[in-house]
C-alpha cells in the first residue's frame, strides 16, 4: 500500500491551539463558578471578586502559552503549509502544463552551491542556528546520523530543479522510487545529503511558499524510518525539514526536486554525488 507523505512530527501547532481553547474554557468556567460563589455570599463584592479570579486564570493561561518556543512554532507552521501544498499539488498536477524533459543536458543549472565548507556535521548545524534557519525534527535526526557526512574538500555543485510533471508523469502523485528511476534514466544524479543544509544556508532569499525536495539517497532515523530533506519557506521562516523517504511514498507530481547535473554537463564544475 502506498504511504501517505508524513511531515515532521512536532506537534506544537496542535498543542498551541489546544492550549488557547483550554484557557478560554478555563476562564469561562472560572468566571461562572466565581459568579455563583459571589451570589451565595452577598456581603462580598461580586463584580470585583469575579474580575479578580478571571484575571488570575487569564494570566496563568497566557504564561503557559509562552512554553511553545518561537522556533518550534515556526517549524510547525512550515509543516502545516507543506501539508496544504502537498494536498493542492495532487489536485493541480494535471492542470499545470510543463515542458517535458528529454535529457539532463536540456535543463539549465538552477543554482550552484558550495559543499565541503565545514569540518563536520555539528559545525554545519551550528551555522544554521547562527543565521536563524530552523531545523525540523526529522531533519535534525538525519543530520545527527552517522550516515550523514560532509565533503572532506570544498567543491561546487550544480543543481537543477525539476518537477515530476516535467519528468513525464501526468498522474496526481507518483511513488518516490519511480520519480528517482526516471530522473536517473534522463541523466540526473542524486545529491549528497549535505546539499540540503548547505542550500538552506546559501539560499536565504527563498520565496515564501517554495518547497524543494532534495533528490538524495534517504537516510534512516534512529527508529529506522527513511527520510529525505526538504528546503522550505512556508511563511514562518526559512527551514530544513524531513519527509517520507520510502520507495512507495506518494509525491505530488507538481513537487520540485533538486538533482545534480553530471560534471561533463556542468562546464567542468565538480559535483558531490552519492554512489549509484
Description of the molecule:
The chain is 39% helix and 18% strand. The chain has 276 residues and is α+β, with helices and mostly antiparallel strands. Strands 1, 2, 3, 5, 6, 7, 8 and 10 form an 8-stranded mixed beta sheet that branches. A hairpin with a 4-residue loop joins β7 and β8. The chain is globular and about 40 Å long.
Number of strands: 10
The span between the termini is: 26 Å
- Spans where pLDDT lies below 50 across 5 or more residues: 1-44, 57-78, 89-96, 266-276
Query: What would you report as the Rg, rounded to the nearest angstrom?
Result: 24 Å
The portion of residues forming beta strands comes to: 15-25%
Task: Provide a brief overview of the structure.
The chain has 276 residues and is of the alpha+beta class. It is built from seven helices and ten strands.
Question: How is the secondary structure organized here?
Answer:
Layout: H1 12-40, H2 46-65, H3 70-92, E1 111-115, H4 121-130, E2 134-135, H5 137-144, E3 155-163, E4 173-175, H6 176-185, H7 195-202, E5 210-214, E6 219-220, E7 226-233, E8 238-244, E9 250-252, E10 256-260
Parallel strand pairs: 2-8, 5-10
Antiparallel strand pairs: 1-3, 3-10, 4-9, 5-7, 6-7, 7-8
Helix pairs in contact: 1-2, 4-7
Question: What key phrases describe this protein's structure?
Answer:
disordered N terminus; alpha+beta; two-stranded antiparallel ribbon; 18% strand; 8-stranded mixed β-sheet; 39% helix; 276 residues
Amino acid at each position: 500500500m502506498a504511504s501517505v507523505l508524513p511531515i515532521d512530527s512536532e506537534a506544537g501547532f496542535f498543542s498551541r491551539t489546544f492550549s488557547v481553547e483550554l484557557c478560554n474554557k478555563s476562564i469561562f468556567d472560572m468566571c461562572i463558578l466565581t459568579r455563583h460563589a459571589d451570589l451565595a455570599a452577598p456581603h462580598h463584592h461580586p463584580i470585583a471578586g469575579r474580575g479578580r479570579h478571571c484575571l488570575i486564570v487569564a494570566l496563568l493561561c497566557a504564561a503557559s502559552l509562552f512554553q511553545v518556543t518561537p522556533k518550534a512554532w515556526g517549524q510547525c507552521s512550515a509543516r502545516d503549509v507543506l501539508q496544504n501544498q502537498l494536498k493542492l499539488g495532487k489536485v493541480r498536477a494535471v492542470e499545470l502544463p510543463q515542458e517535458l524533459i528529454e535529457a539532463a543536458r536540456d535543463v539549465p543549472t538552477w543554482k550552484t552551491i558550495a559543499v565541503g565548507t565545514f569540518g563536520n556535521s555539528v559545525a554545519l548545524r551550528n551555522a544554521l542556528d547562527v543565521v536563524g534557519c530552523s531545523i525540523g525534527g526529522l531533519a535534525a535526526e538525519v543530520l545527527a546520523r552517522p550516515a550523514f557526512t560532509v565533503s572532506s574538500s570544498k567543491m561546487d555543485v550544480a543543481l537543477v530543479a525539476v518537477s515530476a510533471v516535467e519528468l513525464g508523469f501526468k498522474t496526481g502523485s507518483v511513488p518516490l522510487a519511480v520519480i528517482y528511476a526516471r530522473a536517473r534514466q534522463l541523466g540526473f544524479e542524486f545529491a549528497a545529503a549535505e546539499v540540503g543544509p548547505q542550500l538552506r544556508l546559501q539560499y536565504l532569499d527563498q520565496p515564501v511558499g517554495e518547497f524543494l525536495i532534495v533528490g538524495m539517497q534517504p537516510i534512516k532515523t534512529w527508529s529506522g524510518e527513511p527520510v529525505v530533506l526538504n528546503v522550505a519557506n512556508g511563511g514562518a521562516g526559512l527551514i530544513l525539514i524531513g519527509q517520507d523517504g520510502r520507495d512507495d511514498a506518494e509525491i505530488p507530481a507538481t513537487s520540485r526536486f533538486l538533482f545534480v547535473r553530471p560534471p561533463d554537463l556542468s562546464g567542468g564544475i565538480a559535483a558531490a554525488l552519492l554512489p549509484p
